[in-house]
Amino acid sequence: MVVAGCTKCIKYMLFFFNFIFWLAGGVILAVALWLRHDSQTSNLLILQFEGQQAPGTFYISVYILIAVGAVMMLVGFLGCYGAIQESQCLLGTFFFFLIILFACEVAAAMWGFMNKDTISKELINFYDSAYIKAVDVSGSPSKDSAIKVLEVFHSTLDCCGKGDDTALFKQVVGTLCPRKTQEDFLKSQSCHYKLIELFSEKLYLIGLAALVVAVIMIFEMIFTMVLCCGIRNSPGVY
């Protein structure tokens, strides 16, 4: 052990933050896997209508989270080991990976901010295309499949209609929303609103996790630089 005094304190603080970082990576990985297999989103995003798959933009952010969580656990272990061993080589490698992770997180945050409304809008458009076919009185060949798509939306989100429903839709509400009476339909929330609410909550959760991780990363980069300088300037290191 070559470091002493305040630098030794920094060493154990860096180990502690790296342990928290490792745990955060595990939590993010678990949350990402939960988001990937969550019944609400999975039921909606596996739907197909007229040969088109439901938009899967949401899964892009989830797959990024899975990769970030796994890398964070690996980098966190590297940082813990480097701090305890007081290895400048390991700490330098750890610092390099932190910079890469931080840059990727900033890029992902910018992408998420620019596309925060895209996910719900894509699914709303998908819902509306099925909605139009489902209430079509001309006997469209895709009417049965459109009704099945709407049934999945209505049962999964506990909603009915899109908020500005026509008299024609209200006449067939018993078919499209079999669990709801006419009175329930008047009280129910629109599927447009429920879709926006569903993905806003999940994106908020992702954003909160990213913010916590970014703060931890900043402290780790500072402590890593201080510890490396302390090791380099300690007696017995040449």
From TrEMBL:
Keywords in alphabetical order: Disulfide bond, Membrane, Transmembrane, Transmembrane helix
Q: Pfam families per the record?
A: Tetraspanin (PF00335)
The membrane-topology field of this record reads:
Multi-pass membrane protein
Top-level taxon in the UniProt lineage = Eukaryota
Cysteine pairs forming cystine bridges in this chain are 159-191, 160-177
Q: Which residues cross the membrane?
A: 12-35, 56-84, 90-113, 203-227
Alphabetical list of CDD domains matching this protein: CD81_like_LEL
Q: Where in the cell is it found?
A: Membrane
Q: Which InterPro entries match?
A: Tetraspanin/Peripherin, Tetraspanin_animals, Tetraspanin_CS, Tetraspanin_EC2_sf
Gene Ontology CC: one annotated term: plasma membrane
Please name the PROSITE patterns in this protein's record: TM4_1
The record's listing under Gene3D superfamilies reads: Tetraspanin
Which SUPFAM superfamilies does this entry report, sorted A to Z?
Answer: Tetraspanin
**Membership in a protein family:** Belongs to the tetraspanin (TM4SF) family.
Query: What name does this protein carry?
Result: Tetraspanin
